[in-house]
Structure formats: structure tokens, C-alpha cells
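User: Structure please.
Assistant: Input sequence and predicted structure:
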Amino acid sequence: MAAENRYSQIVAWMKVILPLLALALLSTLFLFSRSPDPEMAIPFAEVDVEELAEEQRLNQPRFAGTLDDGREVLFVADRAAPVAGQPRQITAEIVQARVALSDTDYVLLASGSSHVDLEAREAELENDVRVTSSAGYRMESDRMTLALDDLRLVSPGPVRVTGPALDLTADMMSLTGEEGAQVLSFNGTVRMIYDPAD
């Protein structure tokens, strides 16, 4: 009976002591807390939240597909977004693409920006367009059009090609043809330096 009485007394005292201890701890937190240091604040990204909410944009998207003859095409971009009011058209920035020519040969394309028309199955590459082939040739132009249904690559403006033993400039260029029968044509004023010793 004495043990039960002692237990009841301890519980009664704890009901008073524990809330007082909690109050003392909280008061020390407020009394001795320091003012916040702006230099130690968590940095936030400087972005326009409203613009992000309204804009449908993808970061680092990858688009993969095949040509009509089964060869693979792969697009990788830094950013991409649909064109306003044109859901079948996409604009992309910092674009890279790989197009298979055959089982072993391919071309790599890179450009600062691109406009992809999914309905027409074409991609307009602009801003420092570079094409590198697996054979070691490099082509540069300001703008090129790539057909996504068959292998057609057209440069409507000046183009320069460099590679093993070759330095060529032309006013226009087109690459057409099916697997194993690609035809590369240069038009307008064409200048070529060929040095087999290189």
C-alpha cells in the first residue's frame, strides 16, 4: 500500500516538473538564440516561377526513331519545348544527333538550335551546324535540313567540308539516297583542294 502511495506521489510530481522543464528549455531557446545570418541562408535558383509554370519545357530530352529502311536516328538536346499553338512542332537548343548510314557507318550532327516538325518529319538545324562522319570527314554550315523519314540532309547555304586529303567549299549541299547508295551533291560555286599526300 505504501509502494502504491509513493508511486502516485512520483507521478503527481512529474506532472508538475516535466512541463516546467519544457518551459525552461523553450525560454532558453528564445532568450539565447542568435539573429539569422543572411550569408548562411540557403541559396535559391534565380528562376521565374510563373514562366516555369506556364512553359512546357524538357531538360536534356532524348528522341529516338528509325528511318523507313530501319536505320536508327537519335536526337539529344539540352532543352526542348513545343511551339505555342503547334503541338506537332518542337524547338530545341544545343542539339546533337546520330544518324546511321549502314551497320558500321554513321554521321554525327550538332547545332546550337533546332526546329523539329513531327508532321513533316523534318528537323531544321541552325546556329553553327557541324556534321562529322565515321570516315573522318567534317562538314560545317549555318543551316541544314534533316529528313526524319529517309536519309536526306540539305544545306541551302554555304558549306565547308574537311577531312583526309580534302578541303572543299560549296554554295549548297545535299545528301540523299537509301542505305548503301548515298549520293552527296555540291552545287553553286564549288572549290576543292585534294592532296593525296595528306
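The helical segments are 2-32, 49-54.
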